[in-house]
Structure formats: structure tokens, C-alpha cells
Amino acid sequence: MNVSTESKPVSLQFNKRSFWGLDTQKMDINNPIDADTIIARVMDNGTHEDRAMAVRYFGIDRIKQALFNAPELQSTTISFCSLWWGVEPTAFLSYRKKAAEPIQFVSF
């Protein structure tokens, strides 16, 4: 994914598996909504190198903001970031949404 900022062109080469189902050609890293999507996808599905690149580019505070407010995250991402940042899983909107959803019971 090639991304440019107003000050200088930047090329972020994230693993493509992080962006299945998205048209990355239409994404703008300067758009906060697109940036939040990029951050969540990279942290959920990216490689270690992808995550490190995201931290270098966005900074940890921006990543925290995006992940705390992400509507959907994998449980592993929430667990990892909770331990990394020393916060409770309830700090993540995604965790609170999952906890509020009723458990689906299927009778066979």
C-alpha cells in the first residue's frame, strides 16, 4: 500500500492479507476513518514487521486511540494490547460490545 502525506511521500508496505475485502487503492491514510481501519487491520492480521511499521508511522498514542475505539477486534489483539499497555480489556469498545452481546444458544 503506497501512502502519501502532505509533507513527503511515504510508502507503507503492509502485508496484503491484512486488507482482504478492502479496496486499498481508495484508502487515504490522512483520512482518520481510513487510518483507523488500517491500524485495526494491521494489528489484527499483520505480521510482527507490519505492526512495528504501524507503530513507527502512526505512533503508539494514535494506535491506542484507534484500537480503543475500534468496533471490531480479534480477542487476541485485545488480550495482547491489554497486556502491552497495562489496561483492562474493558478499555476496548470491541470487548465491551462482545460482552454485551447475548450468547447464542442452539438446540440440536
Automatic annotation (TrEMBL):
Domain DUF6922: 14-67
Any Pfam family the entry gives: DUF6922
Domain of life assignment: Bacteria
This protein's name: DUF6922 domain-containing protein
Record organism: Spirosoma endophyticum
Lineage start: Bacteria, Pseudomonadati, Bacteroidota, Cytophagia, Cytophagales
